[in-house]
User: Which sequence fits this backbone?
DNA sequence: TGCTTATCCGATGAGTATAATCGGGTAAGG
DNA sequence: CCTTACCCGATTATACTCATCGGATAAGCA
């Protein structure tokens, strides 16, 4: 399994936020219940999202979390790179990784590079909006 | 990092086998030295490859390992699915995984399915032969 | 029959990361 | 000042990866 629970949970939380938010703040308690995720666990992960500016968190009564962009502008790749650290298939392709001394004679490196590009492009082509259920059909038809 | 050392090592070992073998058996000691991989560690992984019929192992003097197909017929996807167990991005897409009770209302499942397909198709489109260095150029030109 | 080579097998251990819990601290509203 | 809800740190259980060690087994060769 390539993607950790942290990354999977965050995607579902953000999708839930996108779906149920009309600008107001949504408490994590509600989302944790809907998504059947441990409140304490997800509470611990949320600060990563606020610090990166993806969501706003508000304390106290009437508080909770809120997206601060329209769902179309959240690329899944951006979210996963943040929570997973990297989407690279191998260590030597992670950003800031110590360069491998065998890179010049590694038989597999160029394949990993191509896959890395493919994976990043795929996840950057999907947005939060794409994860939402289709809007109810126009009753006219 | 998505791919474990086990998978990465096996690919390099098989590529080395493909490159240096002309039908005879190659001892792991040679390959471990060339690839700078711990002999003891790779020794432990090789039985997976013999049991699956990918390579032949022969004991004793003059022994070692040998591919039993031409390199073109080894798809990287086949090798990685064997050593990694699965290429699935999430647990619920692994073969034989216990079905997730939330599948019908999971907002991310269809995206994971599409990525799973993409990754498997990519690695099935690359063969061991593609990892070998280009053959020496025809001296005529 | 032994000697050498090389695959094979099991037990073990160090190290790391994930997933999760607990208890409390801090900000905001009514 | 009470409730709500985000925030923070410490701790733990678990699992897996990577690797080492010692030896068993098989095969060729003198």
Assistant:
């Amino acid at each position: 399994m390539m993607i950790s629970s942290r990354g999977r949970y965050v995607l579902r939380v953000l999708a839930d936020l996108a779906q149920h938010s009309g600008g107001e703040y949504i408490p994590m308690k509600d989302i944790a219940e809907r998504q059947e995720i441990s409140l304490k666990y997800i509470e611990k992960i949320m600060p990563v999202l606020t610090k990166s500016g993806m969501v706003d968190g508000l304390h106290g009564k009437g508080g909770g979390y809120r997206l601060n962009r329209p769902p179309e502008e959240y690329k899944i790749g951006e979210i996963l790179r943040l929570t997973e650290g990297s989407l690279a298939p191998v260590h030597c392709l992670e950003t800031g990784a110590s360069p491998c001394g065998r890179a010049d004679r590694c038989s597999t490196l160029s394949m990993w590079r191509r896959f890395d590009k493919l994976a990043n492009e795929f996840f950057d082509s999907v947005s939060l909006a794409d994860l939402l259920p289709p809007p109810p059909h126009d009753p006219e038809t």
Q: What stands out?
A: Chain A touches chain B through 35 residues (CB under 8 Å). Helices of chain A lie at 5-20, 28-35, 39-51, 76-84, 109-124, 128-131. The mean pLDDT of chain A is 91. Residues 1-141 of chain A form a domain with the Arc Repressor Mutant, subunit A fold (CATH 1.10.10.10).
